[in-house]
Automatic annotation (TrEMBL):
The keyword Disulfide bond applies. Belongs to the meteorin family. It comes from the Eukaryota. Keywords: Disulfide bond, Secreted, Signal. It is found in: Secreted. The keyword NADP does not apply. This is METRN protein. Residues 1-19 form the signal peptide. The gene is Metrn.
Amino acid sequence: ALWALCLAGLAAALGSFSADQCSWRGSGLSQEAGSVEQLTLRCAEGSLEWLYPTGALRLRLAPRSPPATGAEDHSPRHVTACLKPAGTFRGAQLYLERDGELELLLPEAEAAPRPRVRCFTWLPRDKVALFLQATPQRDISRRIAAFRYELRGDWLTHPALPTEGACRPCNDTELLMAICTSDFVVRGSIRSVSNDAELQESVIGVSAVRVHRQKFPLFQAGGRPGWAAGSIRTPLRCGVRPGPGTFLFTGWLHFGEAWLSCAPRYKDFQRIYEGARRQRQNPCEFPVD
């Protein structure tokens, strides 16, 4: 009787959205085996945590677009979503539902202590949702199906998440926008490059002589006076190698880590920026030595 009371109390306490509708936390103890609970999350990033999965969840990601100004249309041409499952993801399988068809994104058997990020893109007219299906269990041991998500649409000024086209060098226009809109802009040199075959990532160790901007303390004071040190990630397929010289590194945060956007040699950036400034085509002011 006491066990049943504890379960009932847990079921009543769970099943709630965050105040801003960015995240959801709930329990399958209040669901019937064949039921499907419908959810909608409306932020550019957030999380889902499903304890004791039972039945299924159907999750629609519907980020709010920035308000329109005048005749300008902010409707995105496409939206990219990335999901990072928890290392303890158990009790369910995750599918992408697109126009009525299901595609398996994360089998329960693939859960790992160092989970791999899954990304996918859709058009606004597509009918897209995430479908979590509880897997049959023989016991009542604690299981949690949890993941974090990030959404990016082309209504945003910074580049998409690290999926297609991440290895292509930035053109002049993209570079000039990157220095104005990136989550971080640092000038420095490549200290090291390490490759992670499991996560399909390269980690670039950077020694920064100047941190022009960073939204979070990604680059912090290192061993040399006046220098900062940090790490930037890029897809392994890009084949980054260490090399001499000074670069301007720009990029954005992706699940709390720095990801590379543009990285021209600093002397090339100076030439591009000065040319744009002379023609009054620079989108923002930037300090150039």
